[in-house]
TrEMBL record:
Pfam families: dCache_1, HK-GC-Chemotax_sensor. The lineage of its organism: Bacteria, Pseudomonadati, Campylobacterota, Epsilonproteobacteria, Campylobacterales. This is Cache domain-containing protein. It is a multi-pass membrane protein. It comes from Sulfurovum xiamenensis. Residues 41-204 form the Cache domain. The keyword Metal-binding does not apply. Its main location: membrane. It comes from the Bacteria. Residues 283-402 form the Dret-0059-like sensor domain.
Length: 511
């Protein structure tokens, strides 16, 4: 009987998912903007579309929360439902327990913890969460959380959540709306935080504190009401309309920019002479900030509060840092921030190469690449720390994801189709590649490169020389066919460890 009920519930949920897709499609069809479109009409269609996407996600989570699988804590059963939701709207879909430990569709049990998140107590007090802003240092993703508690016999036994990726939502809205160059749009919450923007770089900036005085005044008045006209100055005079989403404490704005000029996106040739110094400066800044803050703080290593304060200051200093930790003189990870990693505190990591190196000879270091607990390639910048008697007490480690660090540097640069950037360690580990599937591979030993002798030959030259040029044959990203590629490379260096930065292009393909 229970299996029959379960099948009925799955059919109901599947029907709801079909409705989500249908509603989203209908909303999207209504919003494309032409030069003659009426802004208020477009704004209405756009805000309804966004509200539909978010609220249908929440309704689906609430429906799943009512199933026997959810009430019984059956992760495999819950996962089947969440998979279907993930196919509709990109994001991280998870099931969290009362102690903060959680499972995701992608990773299953994560061994990470959410109990310190700002929404957690309210969620487990049997309240839904609608649009809570989340930034993941490990993935670089900005998202909005929709979450529903699972209640059994009047007690919350777990919760379901969807961290909806805002960059993907931003891209979809921009494609669907097809705004003329002299229009802009953005969405903010009741605290003035930009949840979405025509330019994704502005997501999670605060319009009330980081914009012009004119923008502050306009928004302060707008969020007191449901809808109306708006006018403000931000480089140019901008005027248009705003409208509150029907079910969310979010407001969408659509404005025309007076005097705006069309800008042709620059087809910039990526220059190693420009990029390599930028990358070197970024690495130096992270390392120098670590040294300065350790010296300036003069923490007492016996006081947890002082160590945690230092770790959080380091995280605030740079968004490139995924995780900051204190490793004691025995190689035990005593403290780690942010707190979602608390399950890893007091873990013995003395067998890791960079920890062994630090314990053997305490000095600043940049580690070799390795696979982090969240299954991405990472490196560590580390410096020793001493007690008040100048005895070695351990190290402060900063975990960095090279992929995100490099992507942030390239974000404003348009790389022509026939140019490719990749970064390799001298041991042949690929730390960065525009083809993300190659990151973390060992070029000299991975079977996928075995049939490309000239690539292997050139790579040995790249490893032995800090700068140079050469040619090789490998697959073209677009066609997946073999192509001749010319390459030039330079190096960045930190604490006796080097990265080779390679720029390749295809000279014989038609432009």
């Amino acid at each position: 009987m229970r299996e029959i009920e379960g099948e009925k519930m799955k059919k109901i949920i599947s029907t709801l998912f079909i409705c989500i897709l249908a509603n989203a499609s209908l909303a999207a069809e209504a919003v494309p903007i032409q030069q003659t479109a009426v802004p208020k009409t477009t704004l209405n269609a756009a805000s309804n579309y966004l509200d539909t996407v978010l609220m249908n996600t929440l309704s689906s989570l609430e429906l799943i929360a009512s199933t026997p699988e959810a009430k019984n804590g059956d992760w495999e059963g819950i996962k089947d439902y969440l998979k279907q939701l993930k196919e509709v709207t990109p994001g991280v879909y998870f099931y969290v327990l009362p102690d903060g430990n959680y499972y995701t569709v992608t990773l299953d049990y994560t061994n990470l913890n959410l109990s310190n998140r700002g929404y957690f107590k309210s969620l487990f007090a049997d309240n839904t969460v609608m649009g809570y802003p989340i930034y993941s240092r490990s993935s670089g993703k900005k998202s909005a959380l929709m979450a529903a508690p699972i209640a059994t016999d009047g007690k919350v036994t777990g919760a379901l959540g969807a961290s909806i990726f805002l960059d993907e939502l931003h891209d979809k809205l921009n494609r669907e709306f097809d705004l003329p160059y002299d229009y802009t749009w953005f969405v903010l919450n009741s605290e003035g935080m930009m949840m979405l923007d025509n330019d994704s770089d502005f997501i999670f900036m605060n319009a009330l504190t980081q914009g012009s005085e004119s923008l502050h005044d306009a928004i302060s008045e707008a969020i007191k009401t449901e809808s109306g006209p708006v006018q403000y100055e931000l480089d140019n005079l901008r005027h248009g309309y705003y409208q509150k989403l029907q079910n969310m404490e979010w407001w969408m704005f659509l404005a025309k920019i007076e005097g705006a000029k069309a800008v042709t996106p620059p087809q910039l040739k990526l220059s190693l002479d420009r990029f390599v110094p930028d990358l070197q400066n970024r690495l130096n800044h992270i390392d120098e900030s670590l040294a300065t803050l350790i010296e300036k703080s003069r923490v007492d290593v016996k006081k947890e509060s002082e160590i945690r304060r230092l770790l959080n200051t380091l995280l605030d200093e740079s968004s490139d840092i995924v995780e900051a930790s204190f490793i004691d003189a025995k190689g035990i990870m005593r403290l780690v921030e942010p707190r979602e990693y608390k399950n890893f505190e007091n873990t013995d990591i003395s067998s890791q190469k960079h920890i062994k190196a630090m314990l053997k000879k305490p000095e600043p270091l940049l580690s070799s690449g390795f696979t982090a607990v969240e299954h991405f390639t990472a490196v560590v910048v580390s410096r020793p720390i001493y007690d008040n008697k100048k005895r070695f007490s351990g190290s402060i480690n900063l975990l960095i994801r090279p992929e995100l660090l490099v992507d942030s540097l390239l974000k404003k640069t348009t790389i022509p189709d026939d140019y490719e950037l990749w970064i390799m360690q001298p041991d042949s580990m690929i730390l960065y590649d525009q083809d993300k599937g190659e990151i973390g591979r060992m070029l000299f030993s991975d079977p996928i490169y075995a049939g490309y002798g000239n690539l292997l030959k050139l790579s040995k030259k790249i490893v032995s020389d800090p700068a140079g040029e050469g040619s090789y044959i490998y697959l073209s990203p677009e066609s997946n066919k073999k192509a001749i590629k010319n390459a030039i490379w330079q190096s960045v260096r930190l604490h006796n460890r080097e990265w080779r930065v390679v720029l390749a292009y295809r000279p014989y393909e038609k432009k």
